[in-house]
């Protein structure tokens, strides 16, 4: 007996709907098994991991705070990936944007006006976009592989940040410790409520809605999808491949830069040697979990953020190792991608006696 | 679905019951930068937590979060503990400083203890150890034992604590051999076994026959053992990883401090302080001297006794790398100068990353 994957003639609407539910179900079962193996109560573990964070205003806010940069970056990346531009360097664009956005409050701390914050955000967008345009221009002019160049620029951006906070941008009153001065109130993103949420969340929501409309309702959205699926057909329609590469990289970089500036301004209030726990890389996962659709990305970002907050909760309250939390997160991704296989493929069980087709939803 | 709901309800009930059932007088919580199994910095803090559990028994409940990255995640982790009823929260990495202060402002009734920082508040104390005292001793041992007269130093980040460690090591070495050479590799990480091992190999290739490190993994010592040279343990006694190669280790012993501070919270006498203990206070401990001839052990023990008696390795005459005087003969650098050190002493073969 053996099991075969057969390509479907067209993708299954039923599986497209069932797949995420199935994946979550399988993750819950696997997580329960893990909890049992590590000697903790599986029901309590699942509850603390997946449900409790949603029942409390504070942790709900924290989920939103964590999801915000992920969703914003993933939205930009989705445009890249839809149009077949493999931008892996959002982490660097996030940092480059944060650097440009932070230049104002660090170099001119006494510049405290109503224009401070909008200017910072603008600089952040421009910084991220320019950083992203480097691999885009290299690709369009010299046909370099953008996966490599965009990824390599992540390290450049991180080292630049490292250099600045240890050198020229170091806090003059900071005993030589590697951190910039704290931002003034005028350079701090206004908060919402008493938690750590800031207006970064509604800004991100607006970006999601606008991008969803652009992708589904406008000629630009059509261009992006056509060029991704069939560049030749797109060329006949008069769309420029190079133009779209520049556009999608600039957009993704701009949004990543905006996310970086908002994270620094709304949450850290200063530059540190590391300002991102890998948002730019995690956002790639979010983009694909959300199937490159802005609304679904919003959901995916929320679920992934929940898995971080939940993982921390089981660690803090039940003493479960953070490795277990990471494994559960990994399992979630594994099952989602695994179940998605069945949208385009179906199972066929071939027995030795009959080669007849059997179950395979 | 119904079954799932039932299970959920049961879990809620159980959660409520379990949180009500804790009978401890105080919950002490710890935030770690690395994994508890790093066998270095975080491992030693975890040993301190375990000592707390052992000392107080059921009177004190503990919890920890490991591998919490510095940055936005740390503020959430600290606040989580403050919200979950921790009476005292130990945040054990420099980068947690501003997040700790932010959370402390919101939770004035919770005590916070931040390791290696310099900012305090009414409910935020700081603590650190005089690791450089141990570095002076291992510098002396290195100069005695090295045949090439060169040691390799794997450094993490150019912050004052690391810089003063490098200086103390070289001062110790120079007290034995004035021409002793020190090569430095910066790995820009506290814990990266791969990078640390590569750095150790590069340093040995450049002629260093003693390896020491201000990073937290056991990798440099293991490389030293493989290559037949010697080294020192960092933060914890790493003898098990290199029984033939380790001379001694500078061990951070946080247990006495943790027990003392938690007792103060229980007694209601806790105050915001800035603690900086060393060999004398038992916060820095030298692991047993091994693989060494008797005269070197005697010298090390003599220096150790001198430091325990109140002598400071950073006592003049001290000359900076650029030749200017840092301290005149017999003048002892004050604590602030050591805690903010951003210059090399004469003889360091490196340019301080600025």
UniProtKB/TrEMBL annotation, chain A:
Keywords, sorted A to Z: Cell membrane, Membrane, Transmembrane, Transmembrane helix
A GO molecular-function annotation: transmembrane transporter activity
What kind of membrane protein is this, topologically?
A: Multi-pass membrane protein
Q: Which Pfam families match?
A: BPD_transp_2
Location within or outside the cell: Cell membrane
Gene Ontology, cellular component aspect: plasma membrane
Q: Where is the signal peptide?
A: none
Q: Which residues cross the membrane?
A: 21-51, 117-138, 147-165, 199-219, 239-259, 271-289, 296-318, 324-343
Chief subcellular location equals: membrane
Q: Which PANTHER family match?
A: ABC TRANSPORTER, PERMEASE PROTEIN, GUANOSINE ABC TRANSPORTER PERMEASE PROTEIN NUPP
Which named protein is this? Nucleoside ABC transporter membrane protein
Question: What species is this protein from?
Answer: Roseibium suaedae
The lineage, from the top, is: Bacteria, Pseudomonadati, Pseudomonadota, Alphaproteobacteria, Hyphomicrobiales
Automatic annotation (TrEMBL), chain B:
Identify the residues that the record assigns to the ABC transporter substrate-binding protein PnrA-like domain, covering every copy: 27-297
Annotated signal sequence range: 1-23
Q: Which domain of life is it from?
A: Bacteria
Q: Which Pfam families match?
A: Bmp
| Keyword Endoplasmic reticulum applies | no
The terms describing its cellular component in GO are: plasma membrane
Looking at the keywords, is Signal present? Answer: yes
InterPro entries from the UniProt entry: ABC-Purine-Binding, PnrA-like
UniProt keyword annotations, A-Z: Signal
Name of this chain's protein: Nucleoside-binding protein
